Amino acid sequence: MTAFSSHDLQTSAEAAGLLLPEHVCDQLVAAIDADKHVILTGPPGTGKTTLAYLTAELARKAMMCTGYLPTTATSEWTTYETIGGLQPTPEGLIFRPGMFIEAIESGRWLVIDEMNRSNFDRAFGQLFTVLSGSAVVLPFKAAGKSQRLSIVPFGEETPAGTEPIRVPATWRIIATMNAFDKNLLFDMSYALMRRFAFIEVGTPSNETYCRLLSGGGELIEHLLPLRRFCDLGPAIYLDAARYAERRQRDGISRSRVLYEAFYAYFLPQFEGVDETKALDLYRTVSERLDDPERIQVQRNLSEVLGVELVH
Fold it and tell me: Longest Cα pair distance anywhere in the chain, in angstroms?
């Protein structure tokens, strides 16, 4: 059992201003108790990354780990970044540990943001075997050692003739993945998927958004209808509201402020929409704008989304 409770996690989340659906903290703690690594899925702006950090910090306080190693996945990841590889030095080639081995050896949990960005086969390599619960022998030797390194999950035997890197029983990976990229899960082997629990961090109701935006963010409420095109998390609206509040102090028109907030915070979320949805999106936004901003939105949608608006 974990040394912290779902109530502890819920309290930490609320203190950080996270609006989490019911049972998310219960699920997350239960998955960690069940010896699972975790992938948090959900729309942008729902607090997945913050929740991952809060969980790892509670684990540190509970002495399940020494802290956490945060990283963001990229399409350029290979096993050199994750497991490690040979690095030239004045003394010759030496093994440089990758982030997974660095985290394991230092007792830190690994928090991977936007895991969907990586090419799983190229980035994880031998880690597929380790995360599936079996030891693996690496083609490297540590500096000053004569035997090859092996990564050995808790409870597994060390392969003969190897220098083991032992995975602690309480070591975990907590990763995040946007809901829009769930199709990429099919790139993961079933053996790897079985080592993760997938927990959805969804969005609250429109009423909750309105409550959040009261007291300065009311102008951004006009953009709540955008949620029917894309399930946007509260963090995006709160960021836009802070921006809008600041810009209104400059004395510019509400139409201009709303346009700027849309362009800065919302437009990037609609990449890939087709022409029909783009036109509907334009109508939804433009009805709150004056003519100069309407023209700019039409141009932006055409240029950024690569669609031709005919209306």
Answer: 75
